[in-house]
Amino acid sequence: MSDEMNSKVVIITGAGSGIGQAAARLFAEAGATVYGADMDADGLRNTEKLVADDGGTFYSQRADISSEGDVRGFIARVEAEQGRLDIACNNAGIAGSLHLLEDYPTEQFDRVVAVNLRGVFLSMKYELPLIKRGGGGVICNTTSVAALTGPAGTSAYAATKHGIHGLTRSAAHEYARAGVRINAIAPGRTETPMVTGVALDNSVFSAAFAAEADSLPAGRGADPIEIARAMFWLCSPAASYVYGHMLIVDGGVTIGGPPFTG
User: Fold this and answer.
1) What is the spatial distance between Cα 13 and Cα 20, in angstroms, rounded to a whole number?
2) DSSP the chain
3) pTM (2 decimals)?
């Protein structure tokens, strides 16, 4: 890995596992000073150890991104300790459980919206002033292929991922002239604890989930590092003319249609 992120200050939410953890390691390996937030304190400690073993720099803070106070405090810490913010990867999210819409528990719907959509809004709200004061930078929001599709049973999750796409495009338009590039990444099935946890929670979904990987054009789910690499590219100078884009990294799942071997 090159040192192209050397001296950059990077925030990654959801850094305690999965894509966020892989991204923290990748940015730190490239020379960035990485700040990670997550609700999972044990996961953050694991990420901190992995980054340290790689020779990188990682600071963690337990935070609930649906809480304005937690988000404001996290960004304030970065400002106090570093005085700048160059890159923010707003990656934290939850899946919720699977229900028909009419059976979806209202409290759970509200929680998914609070974490996934309000959390990205709050993160950008407090990141943007600090990024602008440093002369500009990059934001990458993690959405999902569910921002394009509507998987059955996931009304809350799908709604929030569509919403993140809209937030990303609107903010990209508002802040482009201020020197801030804002994009989103839309992973397909990725082998993370959140994804496998949803499968195990629902016996009906579990069998379908087990068979799903074989039906993907790629023939498998993504390793989190594969998504993190795409995120890294969006945040790098190589993507300097990419604004308001949702980059789909899904093993071909959104191509559509049944498999055909000729």
Assistant:
1) 7
2) ---TTTT-EEEEESTTSHHHHHHHHHHHHTT-EEEEEES-HHHHHHHHHHHHHHT-EEEEEE--TT-HHHHHHHHHHHHHHHS---EEEE----------GGG--HHHHHHHHIIIIIHHHHHHHHHHHHHHHTT-EEEEEE--GGGTS--TT-HHHHHHHHHHHHHHHHHHHHHGGGTEEEEEEEE-SB--HHHHHHHHH-HHHHHHHHHHHHHSTTSSPBPHHHHHHHHHHHHSGGGTT--S-EEEESTTGGG-S-----
3) 0.92
Q: What is the pLDDT of residue 29?
A: 96
DSSP per-residue codes, 150-173? --TT-HHHHHHHHHHHHHHHHHHH
Q: Which position has the token pair 């590092």?
A: 225
pLDDT in tens, 16-75: 999 999 999 999 999 999 999 999 999 999 999 999 999 999 999 999 999 999 999 999
Catalytic positions are 157
Domain formed by 9-252, architecture = 3-Layer(aba) Sandwich (3.40)
Do 149 and 254 touch, CB atoms closer than 8 A? yes
Phi, psi of 222 (to 5 degrees): -80, 145
Any idea where the domains of the chain sit in the sequence? 9-252
Tens of pLDDT, residue by residue over 82-121, are 999 999 999 999 999 999 999 999 999 999 999 999 999 9
Backbone torsions φ then ψ of 152, nearest 5 degrees:
-60, 140
Pairing relationship of beta strands 87-90 and 9-13 according to DSSP bridges: parallel
